[in-house]
Specification:
The protein is an alpha/beta fold and about 300 residues long. It is about 35% helix and about 20% strand.
Length: about 300
């Protein structure tokens, strides 16, 4: 039986719904999602296996004009490298926002690519149909997209059409991963990402993006339970006070929500222990960035 397998980079501006799309097609939550922009910090691979084809989707950080920090530059660099190395690219656009400066900047970076590029107009369920057709016409005028899809990543509408089309673009190849795999992210890194998501969701606008989570210990016990020790890094004492909260109340809530999510994912008891540490230069520290998932 001839099989196909390949990589598809999911590219776009921040908060377009790239992670939501990947979670939808994979069928499991492997990339964290929050209302905050630039939630995804490094490339996350999601594996979708059909009978004769295997897709390896690469969820990338939202492309934006990076700041001077090593973390900012690593985020944007990882997105562009994924686009260059993939067999195809899927540009996800928030149909409610349309093509703004950030989206045009991404298109400028993709226009010389020799790889097939597809456009997924996301969140079309929230857009008036009268506005959708002009947006699709505008997209085709860029003369970069091989095909345009109208989808709702959250509801799953149109996502199977995307897979059916991308199947034809995958090169002939044995499967690259076991058909039962859904990601190649180590579980200790996945656990850190889940805690980071819960911290973002709980703290709302109080905490800037100067936070990182590292799993410092991951121990499978004889009784089947798992002990996880994690360190939450912030840059200033004032941020530590926010994360810990009065009497440790906020940190307990973060831990409780993360623990429940981890138990649902792992289908076993999880004992989660969190600490908070001030490390002012963590986003400039190469070792720290690598420990928290960045490919430098």
């Amino acid at each position: 039986m001839t099989t196909r397998a390949g990589f598809i980079a999911i590219i776009g501006a921040p908060n377009a719904g790239k992670s939501t799309f990947m979670n939808q097609v994979v069928g499991e939550k492997i990339s964290i999602v929050t209302p905050k922009v630039q939630t995804t910090r490094f490339n996350v691979r999601g594996i979708v296996s059909r009978e004769k084809v295997q897709f390896v989707f690469v969820d990338t950080p939202g492309v934006y004009q990076p700041g001077k920090s090593k973390m900012d530059q690593a985020m944007v660099s990882s997105a562009w490298s994924a686009a260059q190395e993939a067999d195809a690219a899927l540009f996800v656009l928030d149909a409610k926002k349309g093509f703004g400066k950030k989206e045009i900047m991404v298109l400028e970076g993709l226009k010389n690519s020799r790889k097939p590029i597809f456009l997924a107009l996301n969140k079309v369920d929230a857009v008036n149909k009268d506005k959708l057709l002009p947006l699709m016409q505008q997209a085709m005028e860029f003369d970069i997209f091989k095909q345009v899809f109208a989808i709702s990543a959250e509801k799953g509408d149109g996502t199977e059409d995307v897979l059916d089309t991308l199947e034809k673009e995958m090169p002939e190849s044995p499967f690259l991963f076991d058909p039962d795999d859904i990601t190649d992210i180590p579980m200790r890194m996945m656990a850190a990402e889940i805690t980071r998501e819960k911290a973002y969701m709980l703290l709302g606008q109080e905490l800037p993006y100067e936070i990182a989570v590292e799993t410092v210990n991951y121990e499978a016990r004889d009784n089947g339970s798992i002990r996880i020790d994690q360190m939450i890094y912030v840059k200033r004492d004032s941020q530590k006070q926010i994360v810990v909260g009065k009497g440790g109340e906020v940190l307990k809530k973060i831990g409780s929500r993360s623990r429940r999510a981890l138990m649902d994912m792992m289908d076993t008891d999880v004992h989660l222990f969190l600490r908070v540490k001030v490390k002012s230069e963590w986003s400039e520290n190469t070792l720290m960035l690598r420990m928290t998932g960045f490919d430098l």
